[in-house]
Amino acid sequence: MSQISPSEDIRSVTDLKRNTREILDHLHATGRPVFLTVNGKADSVLLDVHVYEKHLQAGNLARLLAPAELDIESGRTRPVKDFLKELKRAKKIPR
Predict the structure, then answer these.
(1) Could you give the 3-state DSSP secondary structure of residue 20?
(2) d(CA 32, CA 45)
(3) In whole angstroms, what is the distance from residue 13 CA to residue 57 CA?
(4) Which pTM does this prediction carry?
C-alpha cells in the first residue's frame, strides 16, 4: 500500500454517490483507504476487502502474542532446551 494522497483519497459522501464505481476502482487499484467526509468533516473510511482482511489478521495475531509478550516482560521465561526436554518427556518422543 502506498502513501495516502489527500487529493485522491479524501472524498465527500456526495462524490461517492455520484462516482461510486470510479472511487471503488481507485480504492482497489491503489490499495489505499478512501476517507469520506460529510459537511467537510471526516466521517468514514472505505477499505479494500483484502486490505481489511490483512489488518484483521494482524490484529488477531497481535492479540495472540500479547500474553507471551507480558510473560517476557515479567521474566516468566525459560531456556528452550529445558522446554524441549519437558515436551519430549511429556509426549514420550524419542531422542
Answers:
(1) helix
(2) 10
(3) 29
(4) 0.69
Nearest in space to 31 (alpha carbons), one of 16, 53, 11: 53
Give the model confidence (pLDDT) of 10-59 as tens digits. Answer: 999 999 999 999 999 999 999 999 999 999 999 999 999 999 999 999 99
Overall domain count for the chain: 2
19, 25 in Cβ contact below 8 A? no
Length of the chain: 95
CATH of the domain at 32: 3.40.1620
- Whether 14 is covered by a domain: the verdict is yes
Domain that holds residue 39: 6-47
Q: What angle do CA 15, 20, 26 make, to 5 degrees?
A: 95
For residues 27 and 48, is the Cβ–Cβ distance under 8 A? yes
Instruction: Give SS3 for 45.
Output: strand
